[in-house]
Amino acid sequence: MTSTDLPAQDAPRYVRLSIELIAEITDEQALKAAALAQVENDEYLDDEERTQSVEAIEVDPSGSLAHFIDPVALLGDVPGIELTSATWESAHTEYDPEDESWDEYSVEASDEADGE
């Protein structure tokens, strides 16, 4: 079924958009300082959330990146779209840029994954 086969409806259609990014932390102290400043200046955090965020940054500075993710900025100016829900997280990962299995656009990597 294609989008042209769908019946016309007045109700909104929801789309789950999944994005995976891999970022290299090149200066952990700079990231940590910027995240702490971001949390300090976030007018939407209450005191308890602010305290939890600061503690999380102190324990694992790699989690600092999550404080810079803004789904509203990604979709806020797209006509005909209203952001209804967003969740995200950051986590350590093993990454080898030379490993072709990380290249989703590589024909060879997808062939290997398919067992060909």
TrEMBL record:
Region (Disordered): 89-116
Regions of compositional bias (Acidic residues) in chain numbering: 96-116
Protein name, UniProt field: Uncharacterized protein
